[in-house]
Amino acid sequence: METVVSGIRSTGKLHLGNYYGAIQNFVKMQHEYNCYFFIADLHSLTTHPTPDDLHGNVKHVLVEYLAAGIDPDRATIYIQSDVPEIAELYLYLNMNAYLGELERSTSFKDKVRAQPDNVNAGLLTYPVLMAADILIHKATKVPVGKDQEQHLEMARTFGNRFNRLYNHDYFPEPYAFTFSENLVKIPGLDGKGKMGKSEGEANAVYLSDTPEVIRKKVMRAVTDSGPTTENQEKPQEIQNLFDLMKVVSTEDTYQHFDGLYNNCQIRYGDLKKQLAEDMIIATAPIREKINDIAADSAYLRQVARHGAIKARESAQKTIKEIRELIGFRSF
Ligand code: TYM
Questions:
Q1: What residue's CA is closest to ligand 1, atom 21?
Q2: Contacts (Cβ under 8 Å, ≥6 apart) of 237
Q3: Averaged over 181-203, what is the pLDDT?
Q4: Which residues are involved in binding L-tryptophan (predicted)?
Q5: Annotated catalytic, 273?
Q6: Averaged pLDDT for residues 20-24
Q7: Which of 22, 57, 136, 259 sits a CA distance of 20 to 30 A from 12?
């Protein structure tokens, strides 16, 4: 059975981008594959969270994984820092990751722009840690959104480089995975780029947002003055709302509003109202479970412990083999 690995950084509550880009696929894949889904708390250290924030954010992700339907009896759910073998593999892979290629990574360049006062080495080697996450379980399928494509390419590069040095087919090649034709990119509500945690509170709709908050955020989304000729191309901010509708609404609803747009009869207020209601319906099954799961500390502890044991079993096997291959042999 093929192995699947994916993770989400513990940097806050999860939003629709995380859900449609990643978690929805996690839930489907757990029935068909050997799945490892983790909380990337080591990755989140690049922004220097306080100990309380770090812990709270790990909990958010764990709770929301469970609320979204990841079943700890089917998939291994664990916290990255509970598996120190990942950090060890990261160290080995770092020896063959080069400054030039790390500096060229799009996400590194974005971070340099976003946090110019904190361009730490962890940011630079972020893709190496991500490769270690994936290669530690020898995964071949990695369910992620479009923004992670380049990281997957780098993971293949680092794995192949290791293979060339030590053993030609030790690591299989991991590829980004989705059930649909293309990797998903969910736009935000600010009329510009993707939905994200760092793009501002109002840009993202969180799985835990109440219906009132969802309505408020969607109604404030950027629009324009409307089309003036039939079948006019949609400007970015309007296309974004239609793209969101495509994922949360029915095909009929989408076609209805698309038709109105093309006939210059669209009323954005109606479109946004519908979009907000459909987001509320789409997130309801998750939102309704979040509080109960969050209150059950014993259950959360049990899931995290059980997951750590299973993940470490797999990771320890890989690290033992790797140490042998590299030449760390006992006398
Ligand atoms: P992160 O925490 O930024 O996002 C987690 C997952 O959500 C997806 N995602 C989106 N998909 C579509 N549209 C969006 N607007 C959107 N925003 C976020 C991301 O593509 C991702 O799948 N580097 C990773 C975490 C990570 C990881 C790994 C993933 C660390 N190690 C190993 C896979 C395998 C990250 O920062 O994701």
A1: 144
A2: 191, 192, 221, 222, 223, 224
A3: 89
A4: 133
A5: no
A6: 98
A7: 136
The alpha carbon of 13 and the centre of ligand 1 are apart by a number of angstroms equal to: 13
Atom of ligand 1 nearest to the CA of 145: 20
Determine contact, residues 311/151, Cβ cutoff 8 Å. no
Residue 111 among the catalytic residues: yes
State the Cα–Cα distance between residues 95 and 85, nearest whole angstrom: 16
**pTM of structure:** 0.97
Give 143 Cα–ligand 1 centroid separation in angstroms.
9
Q: Whose CA is nearest to atom 9 of ligand 1?
A: 18
Q: Supply the ipTM of this predicted assembly.
A: 0.99
Mutate to test the pocket of ligand 1, among 3, 4, 18 (most ligand atoms within 8 A of CB): 18
For the chain, which residues make up each domain, given as ranges? Answer: 3-177+296-326, 201-290
Helix or strand or coil: residue 118?
coil
Give residue-wise pLDDT tens across range 64-102: 999 999 999 999 999 999 999 999 999 999 999 999 999
Q: Which of 138, 141, 197, 217 is catalytic?
A: 197
- Tell how far the Cα of 256 is from the centroid of ligand 1, in angstroms: 32
Is 216 among the annotated ligand-binding positions? no
Known catalytic residue: 197?
yes
Closest-CA residue to 76 (of 139, 149, 153): 139
What's the token pair of residue 268? 């954005």
CATH, domain 3-177+296-326, list 3.20.20.150, 3.40.50.620, 3.40.50.150, 2.30.30.30: 3.40.50.620
pLDDT of res. 168:
78
Q: Which helix (H) or strand (E) holds 79?
A: strand 76-79
State how far the Cα of 40 lies from the Cα of 20, in Å rounded to an integer. Answer: 18
**Alpha-carbon distance 142 to 255, whole Å?**
32
pLDDT at 202: 84
For 28-49, what is each residue's pLDDT tens digit? 999 999 999 999 999 999 999 9
Q: Which candidate, 186, 239, 264, places its Cα nearest to that of 22? A: 186
pLDDT per residue as tens digits for the range 136-159: 999 999 999 999 999 999 999 999
